[in-house]
Amino acid sequence: MYTELIKPENLVYTKTKVMTDKELSYCPGCGHGTAHRIIMEVIEEMGIQGETIGVAPVGCSVLAYEFMNIDVQQAAHGRAPALATAIKRLWPEKYVFTYQGDGDLAAIGTAETIHACNRGENIVIVFINNGIYGMTGGQMAPTTLPNMKSSTSPYGRDEVEMGHPLKMTELVANLPGVYYVTRQAVHKPGHVRKAKKAIRKAFENTAKKTGVSFVEIVSNCNSGWKMRPTDANQWMEDNMFPYYQLGDIKVDGLFVNK
Amino acid sequence: MKELRLMKGNEAMAEAMIRAGYDGYFGYPITPQSEVMEYLQAERPMERTGMVVLQAESEVASINMLYGGAGSGKNVVTSSSSPGISLMQEGLSYIAGAELPCLVINVQRGGPGLGDIQPAQADYFQAVKGGGHGDYKLIVIAPASVQESSDFVKLALELSNKYRNPVMILTDGAIGQMMEKVELFPHQPRWTIEEIKEKKPWATFGKPADGERRIITSLDLLPEKLEAHNTHLQEKYRTIEKNEVRYEEIMCEDAEYIFVAYGLASRICQKTIQLLRDKGIKVGIVRPITLYPFPKDILKSYASKVKGFFVVEMNAGQMVEDVQLAVECKEKVGFYGRTGGVLPTPEEVMEAFEKSFK
Predict the structure, then answer these.
(1) Does the residue A37 lie in any domain?
(2) How many domains does the structure of chain A reveal?
């Protein structure tokens, strides 16, 4: 009875062709799918599908290349910024981005992250921070919150024993090579719209050759956190957001006054 | 007109990178090969040919820059020395698994650990047996002179692209540091974008409007698929073994004993065989130029003709095992080696040979 409404002129939304038709491998409720989608939508809207090279990490999004309909290289754990550095320097007119989780970017890949940022590589770094190692089954990450339980901090993260959650985003914002730093979320429509705007700005920045654009997305891991998806989102708002505050940190090379 | 220069091995390799048309060099300083990047930076390769040179934050980063650069279709190279090469093993495994052409130069020094900064050949096993995790092979070529150091940089570009396989030049601190006359080969242009598109359609430099996206990965979660990929790799290695064996025979025609040595050790042995021939002992040298693929057949062909083999290495005995395998233990295989960066003298090699075959 609604078939007469299905006409091209009535179309208000459709899945971007820059996402493949492959079924996502992520857990229901996970933020990765939305994060993938908005990056691919930005690539479509900017008309740069043929000019973009993505670098996938090791972690839950190791298979990002299955879902992103662009040229992708899958990097060794933590090394995505090194790959992106070389690709961008050898193809200076292309758009190059990395997509990395917190274990990849803030633990094993800290050196590559800091130095790509410090050199001011003209790349986009998308950093998905859910405070846990998802793929390997919920171990403590460098970003795991104080007292937060994980399979390798079963009694909660003891900051004296296990160190403090690492705010990589604030850290890289201090480097002159970094031009744009923002922290976003993708669990609610309003947040998705803001995050997409941030990603668009980041991609546009790299064409200006002014240095790294760094977009953190604070996300969930209901499987690793052992919560129902809706509870995980609430827990994220109550616990992650106070520690990892959303919003712009550095815009056009200047710190944002809060 | 010939272009002759007196150069260090390290400098000759750097100049050869620019002339051979490499697109990018990514490296980290380490003795005894730091002249490579110093020479490159001083030469302003971006102005000469458009070649990118970047000092990375570590060897881990350099090898992964190679992975990125090679995956995007560019001809890329790095150089390091033993401890740095150890750090690169993870990346090399990924590069071999993803079948990316590139060149890695190891100017070896004494080990294990931080070791010292004197010439050694102690990384032979690491170079020819894989080095990193998984079943894979590098094509390994060993220069014995500054001339070959230059020439093999160009050869590596051809071989790595022919087989979509990483190539290692395995040299040492002495060949890297010593100065010799070198005839420089003429400049060959870097590949154009059209050439990259034609020769490397698998590379990730932006999805073609009318074609499928390209993926560079070494991941295959299905065991059967991964095994099929590994079988393909092994078949490729068999082809390389068939086509690319290189060696030099020195005074082998009438030889009753064959020395087997590569790189600097082969230079030392050239003096030793003169000393022995002065005494009337007929000796020759088979010098492997490719360490992988290893020149098994030529050694095997001598096994029934000579009285014995004598392997000389700057390590505690690594290539000697491959010689024993090649000659199937049909003849005695003697060995002499010095380690830790100590160079054997021609006289002590002679003494060791005489002791072994008295």
Answers:
(1) yes
(2) 1
Residue A206 located in a structural domain: yes
Q: Domain B247-356 is of which CATH architecture?
A: 3-Layer(aba) Sandwich (3.40)
Sort strands A212-218 and A178-185 into parallel, antiparallel or unpaired.
parallel
CATH number reported for the structural domain that contains residue A107 in this entry: 3.40.50.970
Is A8 inside any structural domain? Answer: no
* Encoded tokens for A40: 């691919």
Provide the ipTM: 0.96
B65 closest CB neighbour out of A49, A70, A85: A85
Same fold, B3-194 and B247-356: yes
Identify whether the C-beta of residue A58 lies closer than 8 Å to the C-beta of residue A76.
yes
CA distance A179 to chain B (A): 21
What are the residue ranges spanned by the domains of chain B? 3-194, 247-356
Is the CB of residue A64 less than 8 Å away from at least one CB of chain B? no
Chain segment A129-154, per-residue pLDDT in tens: 999 999 999 999 999 999 999 999 99
* DSSP code per residue over A17-65: TTB-SSPP-SPTT-SHHHHHHHHHHHHHHHT-GGGEEEEE-SSGGGGHH
pLDDT in tens, B306-350: 999 999 999 999 999 999 999 998 899 999 999 999 999 999 999
- pLDDT > 90? residue A52: yes
Q: What is the mean pLDDT of residues B50-66?
A: 98
pLDDT band at A1 (very low <50, low <70, confident <90, very high): low
State whether residue B190 sits within 8 Å of chain A by CB: no
Residue-wise pLDDT for B196-233, tens only, equals: 999 999 999 999 999 999 999 999 999 999 999 999 99
Q: State the alpha helices, DSSP H only, in B137-244.
A: 146-163, 173-177, 193-199, 223-243
Q: Which strands make up the sheet holding B308-313, listed edge to edge? A: B247-250, B283-288, B257-260, B308-313, B333-337
Size of interface A-B (CB pairs under 8 A): 128
CATH class of the domain whose range is B3-194: alpha beta
Per-residue b or e along A5-41, where b marks 16 or more CB atoms closer than 10 Å to that residue's CB: eeeeeeeeeeebebbbeeebbbbebbbbbbbbbbbbb
Cis geometry, peptide bond prior to residue A242 (ω within 30 degrees of 0): no
Closest Cβ–Cβ partner in A52, A90, A111 for B57 = A111
Alpha carbon of A4: minimum distance to chain B alpha carbons (Å):
33
Within-domain flag for A3: no
Can you give the residue range of the structural domain that contains A190? 24-255
- Which pLDDT score, from 0 to 100, does residue B282 have? 97
